[in-house]
Amino acid sequence: MSKPTRKRSSDTLRSGDVIGWLVLAASPTFASMAWISANDMQASICASPPEMLPISGMAFMYLLMSLFHLSPWLKLASAYWRQYPSPKTRGD
Question: Measured at the alpha carbon of residue 33, what is the angle toward residues 58 and 46, in degrees to the nearest 5?
Fold first, then answer.
C-alpha cells in the first residue's frame, strides 16, 4: 500500500518559508523598535532628571531582544561565506 501524495500548487507558500522570513524579520524589527524608543525618550529628556543609561528600559530591552534574535542572520552569513569564500590574493 502506498501513501497518497499531495500535490502542492506553486503559488501557495509552505509554512517553512513563512517561518524562515519571520525569523529573519525579528532582529531588524526589534532594532528599529529600540531606535524609536530611544529617540522618543530623547524628546522627554528635558522634562525628566538625567538617568544613568542614555537609553530607557524599553529601548534597552528591545536592544537585547534584537541581539538575541541575531543568530539566524549569523547563520545565513556563515552559510553564504562557506558557499562563496573570499578569493585568496597574492602578495606583490
Answer: 55
Cα(27)–Cα(8) distance, rounded to whole angstroms?
A: 31
Burial of 62 (0-12, 13-18, 19+ CB in 10 A): buried
Taking Cα atoms as reference points, which of 26, 73, 34 lies closest to residue 54? 34
The predicted model scores a pTM of 0.59
**Maximum C-alpha span of the chain:** 75
Q: What is the pLDDT of residues 42-72, one digit of tens each?
A: 555 555 555 566 667 888 888 899 999 999 9
CA 77/CA 92 separation, integer angstroms:
30
> What's the grid cell of residue 66?
534584537
